[in-house]
Amino acid sequence: MLSLTPINKYFNRDLFSDPFKSARNELTKFDSPFEIDNWFSEFDKDPFFKDIPIESPFEMKEEDHEYTIQLNDIKDKEFKVDFNKKENKLSIETTYQSTTNNEDGESSYTSSSVNSVVFDKEVSFDEIRSDADESNDSLVIHIPKNVESSQ
């Protein structure tokens, strides 16, 4: 007689169960949106992500008088930088488009992302400037701190 081993014996969960059930259970136990933010900040510590590198698209440094943000690999990309004064938040939208022609015709690819940084110290938004360094294929954004509010 042929005996069949249930496939879920080889997995830690029932294959026909709701894959998002545990996430929904986690999200419903929060009392405030701030607790949800904390949950997501710990998200990359899950063992599932241990071998997946999660990298920031930019490098940020804080100095005494300013913050600097460096974006690398800027060739063929478009950037839109926006500052929300009320939230003290800088948003950087990056768009990349490419079009290739081959024997089957033309194909195109578009990628877009928005990354934001909220500064803990008030900044002088009207003095934000950027410097492009084509030799290093990078863009550096200088965000001066508001000297009046830090005193």
UniProtKB/TrEMBL annotation:
Top-level taxon of origin: Eukaryota
Protein name: SHSP domain-containing protein
